[in-house]
């Protein structure tokens, strides 16, 4: 089935690219949505099964795959609406946009399920290619600049990951085995050469931070989410970040069984705290709404990695946080286009009193804000609380205090901007040609946000089991 | 013989660090392609012939001929001026590159691993860091691309060190080469040159919060 899915995804992307007819285009998008759903259902039934030798449907991959599918179906729908409403879109750029979107979703799904580090790497390359086409959608000077930066930084990061894989193979040389699959690495973890393993971790970690959005490589991702159309930005800041996490986390599980565990935790701590710090600094100054969402994602990824580094309940909390964050952040991005249609601007300075023009959408924004800042009853409150508990139990009190302080500043900055958007009228705004927004277009956002609350406060047993299963190898 | 070639490779790095004209960079990249061809030929004796031929073709056709010709074409097409325009004086660049090489040699000497060919490790790491340094210290976008290509060559050297045991990794490295170079150079050829007339990184600073 994985073979069919990959071939199907690439084939549909190719057809979308070649086709210029609107009806066939829409039919192909629906077909891909069906394919993605069927594939996810198949992988659920095929739990722990291996396809094509390199794709195992393990609990972590499955969890993220379901999240991706839940997010990608509305992403396809909103992309359709977005393209339909922008009159300047030519047939050519429409077909490139959808082909790239389909390729992005396909390669992220494959990267989730891959059980071999080189296969993850290959699909990471593919996401760079497809994401760059999405970022360049508007074909103006700024989009080009964003694309160039994204491609260049991702190319360097991919090279870093490759160097890491080479070091990993050097570290494996003493063990008499040449298989770089995660299960083999795990089995041989006590024989790996620590010097090479250390270098491998540094390079692989640095490389994947470009996708995950942590210091040092986070910059490209922020520009990318700003310039890509919002429905694509939703995928870039949810599913793609989860892919970066999977790249790091699967390797981290190997490291956790070696004497380097403590050292790796320190590396992660430094990177995570710096990320939250950077996010705080930018959040207080940012006025571009999309960039504000992107910096908030960086903050959340910092928290997730803190959970991983703290250990204990932190592993569970980190994965829960990633799933919930993907739902919340994507609904925020989906909502952005309605906001843009009303005000024709993405600067906080020219946006205000949103409740007057689109109350359904304004409520989405309000709930999404409450969720993203992890105030109860948001589901993220639960996961963030568990991360703090893990830090407390791990006796990282100073880290905890610092992070709480930074988070307070972030909540203040975020709230200042969101309340300005929702309530404060803009002087001189001419509201005579504000379009009527169909409230039903906010339905998917409500569903996603409600799912985030439900999964956080009252998680179904199967969901908890999947997360437990994902981190079971770390309970040493 | 491999050692001689690899040492020549290191010397090319020192040469690039004091080069003034862009065309010198292109020539050095071509030379590095030929050196890599030689190293591959001598080093990868144990893998099967078909694979070896593929790898050799990649080094000679892609690295030594196609990419330099393409870069030359880009420079002419976009009327890029001939100066490399470093931020840092050439003499200082030379000193920094030397320091990078010395540090990697010291690092390599601290490694106690019989499986490793030290010279591959030294060449690869110093090429990597020198490439990063070139990217950080040069002004033009095209020199950034060249810095990236130098990094890729360094990575290729490192993959040769494990190539006999794991030919798959060398093939992956080739995939990375072709994929990333085509993507980066393709964007450059099609767009950057047309939109930003005088191609300088200082012009790529418009994308910020607004």
Give an overview in words.
- The complex is a heterodimer of chains A (476) and B (210).
- In chain A, strand 1 (50-51) and strand 2 (55-56) form a beta hairpin.
- Chain A is built from 20 helices and 2 strands.
- Chain A is an all-alpha fold and 476 residues long.
- Chain A has a two-stranded antiparallel sheet with strand order 1-2.
- Chain A has helices at residues 2-18, 22-45, 59-85, 91-113, 117-135, 141-172, 182-187, 194-212, 219-227, 230-236, 239-255, 261-285, 289-310, 313-343, 354-357, 359-372, 379-393, 397-423, 443-457, 461-470; strands spanning 50-51, 55-56.
- The mean pLDDT of chain A is 92.
- Chain B is an all-alpha fold and 210 residues long.
- Helices cover 75% and strands 0% of the residues of chain B.
- Chain B has helices at residues 2-17, 22-43, 49-77, 90-109, 118-137, 141-161, 167-195.
- The interface between A and B is large, with 43 and 37 residues.
């Amino acid at each position: 089935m994985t073979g069919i899915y990959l071939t199907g995804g690439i084939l549909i992307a190719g057809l979308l690219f070649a086709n210029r007819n609107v009806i066939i285009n829409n039919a192909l998008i629906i077909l891909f949505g069906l394919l993605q759903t069927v594939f996810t259902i198949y992988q659920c039934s095929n739990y722990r099964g291996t396809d094509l030798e390199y794709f195992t449907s393990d609990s972590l991959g499955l969890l993220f795959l379901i999240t991706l599918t839940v997010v990608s179906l509305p992403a396809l729908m909103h992309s359709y609406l977005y393209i339909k409403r922008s009159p300047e879109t030519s047939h050519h750029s429409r077909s490139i946009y959808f082909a790239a979107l389909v390729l992005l979703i396909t390669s992220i799904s494959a990267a989730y399920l891959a059980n071999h580090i080189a296969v993850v790497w290959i699909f990471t390359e593919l996401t760079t290619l497809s994401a760059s086409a999405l970022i360049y959608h508007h074909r103006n000077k700024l989009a080009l600049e964003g694309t160039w930066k994204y491609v260049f930084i991702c190319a360097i990061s991919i090279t870093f990951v490759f160097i890491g894989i080479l070091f990993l193979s050097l570290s494996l040389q003493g063990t008499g085995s040449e298989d770089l699959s995660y299960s083999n690495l795990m089995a041989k973890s006590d024989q790996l050469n620590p010097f090479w393993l250390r270098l491998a971790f540094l390079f692989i970690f640095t490389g994947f931070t470009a996708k995950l959005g942590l210091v040092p490589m986070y910059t490209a991702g922020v520009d990318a989410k700003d310039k890509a159309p919002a429905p694509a930005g939703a995928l870039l800041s949810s599913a793609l970040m989860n892919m970066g996490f999977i790249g790091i986390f699967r390797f981290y599980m190997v490291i956790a069984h070696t004497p380097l565990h403590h050292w790796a935790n320190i590396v992660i701590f430094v990177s995570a705290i710096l990320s939250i710090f950077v996010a705080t600094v930018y959040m207080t100054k940012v006025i571009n709404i999309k960039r504000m969402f992107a910096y908030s994602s960086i903050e959340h990824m910092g928290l997730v990695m803190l959970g991983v580094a703290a250990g204990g309940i932190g592993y569970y909390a980190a994965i829960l946080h990633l799933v919930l964050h993907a739902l919340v952040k994507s609904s925020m991005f989906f909502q952005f286009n309605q906001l843009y249609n009303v005000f024709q601007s993405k600067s906080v300075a020219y946006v205000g009193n949103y409740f007057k023009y689109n109350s359904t959408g304004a409520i989405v924004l309000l709930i999404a804000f409450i969720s993203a800042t992890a105030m109860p009853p948001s589901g993220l409150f639960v996961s963030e609380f568990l991360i703090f508990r893990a830090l407390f139990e791990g006796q990282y009190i100073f880290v905890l205090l610092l992070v709480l302080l930074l988070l307070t500043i972030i909540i203040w900055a975020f709230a200042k901007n969101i309340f300005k958007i929702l309530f404060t009228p803009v002087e001189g705004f001419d509201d005579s040609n504000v379009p009527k927004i169909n409230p039903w277009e906010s339905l998917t956002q409500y569903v996603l946000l409600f799912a985030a609350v439900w999964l956080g406060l009252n998680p179904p047993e199967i969901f908890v089991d999947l997360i437990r299963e994902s981190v079971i190898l770390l309970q040493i | 013989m491999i050692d001689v070639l690899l040492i020549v490779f290191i010397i090319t790095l020192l040469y690039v660090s004091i080069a003034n004209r862009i065309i010198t960079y292109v020539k050095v990249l071509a030379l590095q392609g030929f050196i890599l061809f030689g190293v591959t030929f001598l080093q990868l004796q144990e893998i099967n012939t078909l694979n070896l031929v593929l790898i050799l073709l990649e080094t000679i056709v892609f690295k030594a001929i196609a990419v330099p010709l393409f870069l030359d074409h880009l420079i002419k097409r976009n009327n890029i001026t001939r100066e490399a325009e470093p931020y840092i004086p050439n003499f200082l660049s030379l000193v920094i590159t030397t320091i990078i090489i010395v540090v990697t040699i010291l690092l390599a000497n601290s490694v106690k691993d019989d499986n490793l060919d030290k010279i591959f490790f030294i060449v690869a790491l110093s090429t990597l860091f020198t490439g990063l340094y070139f990217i950080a210290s040069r002004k033009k976008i095209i020199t950034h691309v060249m810095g990236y290509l130098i990094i890729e060559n360094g990575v290729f050297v490192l993959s040769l060190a494990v190539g006999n045991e794991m030919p798959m990794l060398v093939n992956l490295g080739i995939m990375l080469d072709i994929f990333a170079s085509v993507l980066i150079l393709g964007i450059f050829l099609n767009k950057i040159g047309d939109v930003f007339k005088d191609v300088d990184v200082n012009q790529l600073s418009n994308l910020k919060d607004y």
